[in-house]
Amino acid sequence: MPIPDTDVISATDFHADTDIDIDTRIHTPAPPAAALLPGPADELPPVASPPDLVLQQVRDELALDGSAQRNLATFVTTWMEPQARQLMAETAEKNLADRAEYPQITAMEERCVRMLARLWHAPHPEQVRGCSTTGSSEASMLGGLALKRRWQQRRRAQGKDTARPNVVMGANVQVCWKKFANYFEVEPRYVPMEPGRYHLTPDTLTAYCDDNTIGVVTVLGSTYDGSYEPVADICMALDGYQAATGTDIPVHVDGASGAMVAPFLDPGLMWDFQLERVASINTSGHKYGHVFPGLGWALWRDAEALPEDLVFEVDYLGGRSPSFTLNFSRPGAHVVAQYYSFLRYGFEGLRHLAVENRTTARALAERIRAVGPYELVTDGSELPALAFRLAPGTHGFTVFDVSRAMHARGWQLPAYAFPAPCQDVSVLRLVVRTGFSAELAGTFIADLTEVTRQLRLRRSMPAPAVKPLVVAAEPAHANSPA
Known about the structure:
By secondary structure, this protein is α/β, with parallel strands linked by helices. The protein has helices at 11-16, 22-25, 51-62, 82-90, 103-119, 136-157, 175-183, 231-245, 262-265, 333-371, 399-408, 438-460; strands spanning 129-133, 166-170, 187-191, 213-219, 251-254, 278-284, 296-300, 312-314, 321-323, 374-376, 385-390, 415-417, 426-431.
């Protein structure tokens, strides 16, 4: 049966001939050939437009965005192999929430959880509870919710109130933890930075803890400078606190970036489920898991760490399946891509990528030090990211001037101040990701060198002389006062 020559196929025609391939039966409305698109608008166009015309307009608008390759601000993956892209395109329409319809994607998700459980040294990987999320922000909030619920259950069992929960963390935490505290009514207790100490350490940690502390958040790879917090030392401090007070405080590790770096580059570092106090860990598949945004993972060491009453049973999509996420419908393509990434690279392949990134970051640190007048805060020896600032005594320009000048050359190089009381420390941060080649690194250093030279030159140039403006006095009117 030929496809009707109408703008929209009727339901009768659509189903009349089952021999017609489904891809040929699904049509968009056919607009007039002469239809022209207006410029960007804030309301829905009154009529449809030719798809190629719309495609070109959208591409033209996107061309105004910055280059992903030159975006040194983000930890998020900006490069994937063509085969991984192909798999994502082939599964783009599959809803991960519809587990009865897509059981293989669910199986892939479960395999990824088990792979991560083993990678993070879970004592009993088969007992680990875990799920994929839209990113580390959601995964962190799930980890925080589990901490809060466990604390509530423990307090109620002791006959105590649950009115004032708090969570202890460094002032350097990512904004998702501030959102968690705000959205879920938990008092945030930030351990402040100090000069030369820009992340959480065990020294003053326990002074912020009490019976109402639901947990301590540690960060494996600070957003501010890429440094690792000493998770093992923090756990030891909490062991001592428990011995002195009887209060058992669990730890959540925010490993958004570091949980996919440390296992491959720092095998001797104790930070994961090897530490009994670590109850949960999150990471971002879309960072050093080598998947496009957005994908995260949340894992709990066992069923006790994830209270059962936080898990919902869903049966209205066919079959019954557990659900513990803040979102419901989510693309399954990202889980497929993560599964591909794990199979494609394996441990040695992921280690090779991590070594390349750290090597590039360390080399950049040395080159930046040589450019001057810069001082390294971190040098890429933990996360493949480094923070640097202007050396003391540098006058005439700021890191914000450097950031703006580099932006004019197509680079996204963020500048920002650290939280109080270290707000006088302003830095530039550079993140190395897979796909940042040695050639691109060389171009970056050349541009930074030239920008620095120009800013120094501008500083040394004398200000232009300004002649005083002489304004002739107006003649007095006859009726003006003397």
